[in-house]
Amino acid sequence: MAEKSSLRRLKRLLPAFAAIDAAIEAATGFSRDNIRQERGKLVEMLCDIITDNDSVELAEGLCQLLDEAMVFALKRLRVVEATPTVLATTDAIKAVAGLRSHESGRVRGLACSIIGGWTTSINCDISTGRAILVKLSKMQQAHKALRVPGRRH
């Protein structure tokens, strides 16, 4: 039973790691290959333990290490500039949203915080965009009012 639980947990984490790494790399331009390799070692160890029917406690310990790796990734994601373009061109939103129901309270909390921050940021961008559109519209109306009748522009 614990083996299946570990696999289910791993199945949800791996795509999230990939999406979060992609978003961080897109925002910063720095490779996360070394981090991927270290996480890969943990995943291999966990798969070996599950395959060999080894200790449930050891499997849980490795899952906790992977949870900590996710906490680290989420903290990094929170501090990088995740622009609307980065969010639109990666699967980060879906991945982070999926982590809001993760087993680890720290992972859940960070995921909720990040989604909330992105929502606030995007709403602010929308408000700014609307204000700019209003100003442009007023400028266009003022320009039309200044046109001399009978003269082509």
Describe this structure in words.
- 82% of the residues lie in helices and 0% in strands.
- By secondary structure, it is mainly alpha-helical.
- The chain has one domain.
- Helix 5 crosses helix 6.
- The longest helix is centred in the C-terminal third of the chain and has 42 residues.
- The mean pLDDT is 88.
| Distance, first to last CA | 77 Å
The coarse silhouette is elongated
Low-confidence segments, given as residue ranges, are none
How many E-type strands?
0
Tally of domains: 1
Listing every helix as H and every strand as E from the N terminus to the C terminus, the arrangement reads HHHHHH
Tell me the strand percentage band. Answer: under 5%
The largest β sheet comes out as: none
Radius of gyration: 23 Å
Average pLDDT metric: 88
What is the structural class?
mainly alpha
The number of distinct helices, counting runs of at least 4 residues, comes to 6
Helix content: over 70%
Subcellular location: Nucleus
Pfam families: Med26 (PF08711)
Main location: nucleus
Keywords: Nucleus
